[in-house]
């Protein structure tokens, strides 16, 4: 008797166990899951900040003690030696370093040499202005970069796409101080639409300073005054600095969104939707844009670092009195104690931001393994 191959069946031997269906394993890399991933990322902040604090300290000391750098030539030799001894800068460098680390752990960053102010006071007074400017810049970057990136992907390899790619290159290749000066020349000096410099007019600042416990965030304080004119004045002052700094990041977002939307439009599930007659515009709006946002989140930490670096030039250009503006002032005064404190705080902000971005990326991006 003959049988065909597709009729042949193999029976399990008596007593054999039926294999159980396999279930997908959770995405882990050795046990511990998300909690271990977050803990490791958080602990990495400590060596990162430690290395940067150590580097900044010894680089600043490479030019000599801070008092000689700031006041040398303006005091007699005996007065200079007395100031150096009183500040403890004539002790061994390792002793100064250990004392500086102990002060940072207590929240004491020292006292500025040029104006004799606690560095911690400067950080709390001017830090809010820099964070506020960074928020404005991120809002501009999202509002400009994401829609234009979607538009460029929708018109791939056509005239709008070519124009937007050139625009993106100009955004992140143009020096931020040049963009700021150009915006001031056109919209402040030429057209008179926006204020030239500052965070608010004198009258608005006086109203906000009269509040009990002002926050330092001018938008918040302007809302607390209850005067729409004060809020409008604050927002008008914020437009040009926010645009100048935000375009730097908007160009990066535009190219990222364009590239990832084009890649998503070539996937199988989008081809299946296209075969069912879904329009290209709907494909971009409903299927492609959300996956394209994941790379933006993953590079957000680096972009925050770029914004803080650009804030130094932006604040100087628009006389926006934040940490960047004060950093430039203390650098001119060769006040290295203040410079140390400001750089360390900016480094801590970048490290914490990167930690938060890593955690967020692990939660929303299935490609991240932990």
UniProtKB/TrEMBL annotation:
InterPro entries: BPD_transp_1_N, MetI-like, MetI-like_sf. It is a multi-pass membrane protein. GO terms for biological process: transmembrane transport. Keywords: Cell membrane, Membrane, Transmembrane, Transmembrane helix, Transport. Pfam families: BPD_transp_1 (PF00528), BPD_transp_1_N (PF19300). The keyword Oxidoreductase does not apply. The chain crosses the membrane at residues 38-60, 133-154, 166-187, 234-254, 292-313, 336-364. GO terms for cellular component: plasma membrane. Residues 1-30 are annotated as: Disordered. Residues 127-361 form the ABC transmembrane type-1 domain. The keyword Transmembrane helix applies. Residues 1-28 have a biased composition (Low complexity). It is found in: Cell membrane. It comes from the Bacteria. Belongs to the binding-protein-dependent transport system permease family. This is Dipeptide transport system permease protein DppB. It comes from Oerskovia enterophila.
């Amino acid at each position: 008797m003959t049988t065909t191959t597709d009729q042949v069946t193999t029976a399990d031997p008596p007593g054999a166990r039926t294999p159980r269906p396999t279930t997908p394993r959770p995405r882990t890399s050795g046990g511990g899951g998300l909690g271990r991933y977050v803990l490791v990322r958080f602990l990495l902040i400590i060596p990162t900040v430690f290395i940067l604090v150590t580097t900044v300290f010894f680089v600043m000391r490479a030019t000599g003690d801070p008092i000689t750098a700031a006041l040398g030539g303006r005091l007699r030799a005996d007065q200079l030696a007395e100031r150096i001894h009183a500040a403890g800068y004539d002790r061994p460098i390792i002793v100064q370093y250990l004392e500086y680390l102990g002060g940072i752990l207590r929240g004491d960053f020292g006292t500025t040499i040029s104006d004799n102010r606690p560095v911690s006071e400067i950080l709390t007074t001017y830090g809010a202005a820099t964070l506020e400017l960074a928020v404005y810049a991120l809002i501009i970057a999202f509002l400009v970069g994401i829609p234009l990136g979607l538009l460029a992907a929708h018109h791939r390899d056509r005239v709008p796409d070519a124009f937007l790619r050139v625009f993106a290159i100009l955004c992140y290749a143009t020096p931020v101080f040049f963009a700021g000066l150009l915006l001031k020349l056109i919209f402040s000096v030429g057209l008179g639409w926006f204020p030239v410099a500052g965070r608010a007019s004198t009258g608005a600042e006086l109203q906000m300073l009269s509040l009990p416990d002002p926050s330092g965030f001018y938008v918040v304080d302007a809302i607390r005054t209850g005067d729409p004119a004060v809020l409008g004045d604050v927002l008008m002052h914020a437009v040009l600095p926010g645009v100048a700094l935000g375009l730097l990041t908007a160009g990066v977002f535009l190219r990222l969104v364009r590239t990832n939307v084009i890649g998503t439009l070539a996937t199988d599930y989008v081809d299946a939707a296209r075969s069912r007659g879904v329009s290209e515009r709907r494909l971009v709006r409903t299927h492609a844009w959300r996956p394209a946002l994941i790379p933006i989140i993953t590079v957000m930490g680096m972009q925050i670092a770029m914004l803080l670096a650009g804030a130094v030039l932006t604040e100087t250009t628009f006389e926006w009195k934040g940490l960047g503006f004060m950093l430039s002032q203390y650098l001119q005064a060769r006040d290295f104690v203040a410079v140390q404190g400001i750089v360390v705080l900016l480094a801590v902000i970048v490290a914490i931001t990167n930690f938060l971005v890593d955690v967020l990326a692990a939660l929303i991006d299935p490609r991240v393994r932990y």
